Amino acid sequence: MPSPSVQSSLILPDLHARWPFPSIRSHLAQTIPLETQAWIESLGVLSAPLRKKFEASNFGELASIAHVHVSDAEKYRVCCDFLSLLFIMDDTTDDLGVNEVKAVFAIATDALKNHDKPRPIGENPIGELHRSFSERLHKVSRQNVMERFVLNYDLYAKAVIAEAEDREANKIRSLDSYLAIRRDTGGVICCFDLHLLCTEVPDEILRDEHLRRLETLGLDMICIGNDILSFNVEYARGDLHNAVVIVMHENNLSIQEAISFVEILYQKMVDEFCRIAIHDLPACGSVTTRNAIRMYVAGITSWVTANYEWSLDCRRYFPGGRNPADTNWVVPLIRRQK
Asked: CA–CA distance from 280 to each of 23, 24, 91, 209, 271 (Å)?
């Protein structure tokens, strides 16, 4: 692999130069995230370092674009809560060993599936975080959506445990193997499920191959887009679960060459996604169902848009707080930690 020492800066691609879907924000974004923030604070789940990262991340902004089509305040609150929950789980488990990650998710999944059962005194507050979230979700969810959500959360938990195993073994996956697990490690498929709170898409339609492909493409664009924009900070701290890092290793490429490689892959996904969304959605005779399918797809497109827009403005990835679009997409390369 070529040495990164010859580089002092990165040129990031404008991934959405040809993305045709707009960035629209929810009218609920001024109030509901404050309720979510108060809920998180009440649980005592944030350590001082986690609180600092949490406050810098502005998850209310991410939710305002990702869930713009959720107009009901109670359902929007559930979406905001889950986004915060996901990032707390991500930051909590990032540096834990495999057994510790398993223990955290054992508490989380038990609480998620038993919302009417009080949590043990002295338990990790992750338990009450999930129980109280699940209680709110049950109030606004249909049974089939709840079952789908819990199933996908289980896949998320297994993927994060597998990521911890890779981290412990210092394992670098192939790109295909990485994408297969990365689709689940972000928990975004659960966020797609939350769009079904507002629209009823029959289960047989959700199993349609074209709709499933749209979900996969949406997840992959979210993962790859995030990996490109977060690469600088993740590579600096030695993370191996990043598409750019994997392509560098797999194809013996420099940082800039790997970013270009992954950008091309992303643009191919954009083209396929748009073709399916415009020409190959599942056919059905019901106007109501047809509109429900379109609303679900609109939810996926909003998530792809939100991930990109939020990442550009996020201090998690650009500590100086400066959007790379304002610097002609050139950013200083962060020195790797020893």
From this structure: 23, 25, 38, 10, 13
- Measured between alpha carbons, how far is 1 from 105 in angstroms, rounded to an integer? 36
Per-residue CA distances from 310 to 127, 281, 293 (Å): 28, 28, 26
Distances (CA, A) of 93 to 20, 37, 121: 35, 20, 22
What residues are paired with 9 via a beta bridge?
Answer: 332
Dihedral through CA 196, CA 141, CA 220, CA 8, nearest 10?
120
**For residue 305, what pLDDT is reported?**
97
Give the C-alpha separation, 123 to 120, whole Å: 6
Residue 21 DSSP code: S
Please choose, from the candidates 73, 71, 84, the residue with its C-alpha nearest in 3D space to the C-alpha of residue 299.
71
Residue with tokens 């990790």: 124
What is the DSSP secondary structure assignment for residue 4, as one 8-state letter? G
**Ramachandran sector of residue 162 (left: φ over 0; alpha: ψ -120 to 50; beta: rest):** alpha
Tokens 């879907």: give the residue.
Answer: 21
247-278 per-position pLDDT tens digit: 999 999 999 999 999 999 999 999 999 999 99
Instruction: Give which of 52, 133, 131 is closest to 91, Cα–Cα.
Output: 52
pTM greater than the 0.85 cutoff: yes
Backbone angles phi, psi at 178, to 5 degrees: -65, -50
